[in-house]
Amino acid sequence: MLGLAAFADEISPDLGVQIAECRRQGITHIELRGVAGKNVMDFDKSLRAEIKTKLKDNGLAVIGIGSPIGKVKLNEPFEPHFERFKLAVELAEFFDAPFLRIFSYYEAFPQGRDEVIQRLQKKIDYIHDYRPVLVHENERHIYGELGKSCLDLHQSLDSPKFRAAFDFANFVQAGEDPLNNWPLLKPYTSHIHIKDALMDGGKVVPAGEGDGHIAEILKDAYASGYRGFLSFEPHLSVAGQYSGFTGPDLFGVAVNALRKLAQENNLPLAS
What we know:
Elements: E1 3-6, H1 15-24, E2 29-32, E3 34-35, E4 38-39, H2 45-57, E5 61-65, H3 78-94, E6 99-102, H4 113-127, E7 133-137, H5 147-157, E8 162-167, H6 168-173, H7 178-185, E9 189-194, E10 196-197, E11 204-205, H8 214-223, E12 229-232, E13 238-239, E14 244-245, H9 248-264
Parallel strand pairs: 1-2, 1-12, 2-5, 5-6, 6-7, 7-8, 8-9, 9-12
Antiparallel strand pairs: 3-4, 10-11, 13-14
């Protein structure tokens, strides 16, 4: 079975609305990125405790911390950013999240490759004795934007604490066919984001309506033993640098599109 998760701040900034819609849609896990207009990195202790309690009371868990770690320029000082990374690890531990999403720096390719790898290695070394696994999302304009550079990171770092969060739409928007990148990254993929896009113009669309080859890739993933989560990050209304927004109605469209795709391709969803 494939689990369902969501960047619930795409539904609403209101935690109650996030919870209600996730329950209505059969989503069991949250990829925690934002509540009450605040990024997860800026939650105070009171808000953290409130979120943890309300999620538990409603039968929801946190699959990952949707942090912006690594969404900084490579020429920015490392130590302050590394302290923020430590905070993200603390958050993942607090919410008992198995994954911590990260990125691989802006303005880093190709001359910054060695520095990117050194910085990521320091993060891997730090998280070694903690539960969470770092999952790298292929984001536009970072070192790991393209399939080849993502593969370079995973082969160079070669750690079970550094895996891939495969994002279809981001590859499409970078001008690449996800179907070509999937065989490269399949051995390293521990998490999958559900977001599709059109090659012509990069518009984000519901799963199966774009050029992400989501059905083909998910069929192969499942046949190859993937039993992880499919995490909705639909971006159907707003796609920003640090977050996106979809709204309850369009979020339902996104969920229904994946359910239809799954039914047509005999992919069992846990919900």
